[in-house]
Amino acid sequence: MDPLRRQLTALLPLAVLAPAARAAAGRPAIEVWKDPSCGCCKDWVAHLKANDFQVKTHDTGNSAARERLGMPNRYGACHTAEVEGYAIEGHVPGREIDRLLKERPAAIGLSVPGMPRGSPGMDGPANGNQRDPYDVLLVQRDGSARVFQSYR
């Protein structure tokens, strides 16, 4: 094998891995505040990690984080997160977080109020594999909200 071909062959694995490594490294970091004993919060964090987000968790509850981020209590849920200045409240799917960061609306963030079955972290055998319809809300800076995405 000639030297140039040997060098290219040696570099091939790096060329294949480089885009995936860059994509993972470029994923946004999300901080999550949750109750330390909440199973669905842990499952939502696992959903984020499965969608290649870099997640840092705080097992301190989420009321103070929700207030600091300006998320009205009426849109509250069992965990609060922050990503690139946006509040993420409740069981918001990772793909909607990606869309939020792509579109960058002037808003507080996203919320899935309550704990709808079938939403990330509320899916699977623990919830009887049932799915309830739910909406992901875009919470505006004036405290109002509109549907960002519906799941039916």
In short:
The protein is α/β, with parallel strands linked by helices and 152 residues long.
C-alpha Rg, in Å? 19 Å
- CATH fold annotation: Glutaredoxin
Helix content: 25-40%
With strands numbered from the N-terminus, the spatial order across the biggest sheet is 2-1-3-4-5-6-7
Instruction: Label the CATH architecture.
Output: 3-Layer(aba) Sandwich
**Number of separate domains:** 1
In percent terms, what proportion of residues is strand? Answer: 25-35%
Main beta sheet: strand number and arrangement?
Answer: 7 strands, mixed
Order of secondary-structure elements: HEHEHEEHEEE
The overall average pLDDT, rounded, is: 87
Unreliable residue runs: 11-23
Q: In total, how many beta strands?
A: 7
Task: Give the overall silhouette.
Answer: globular
Text of the CATH class: Alpha Beta
| CA-CA gap between termini | 58 Å
Category by helix and strand content: alpha/beta
Count of helical stretches? 4
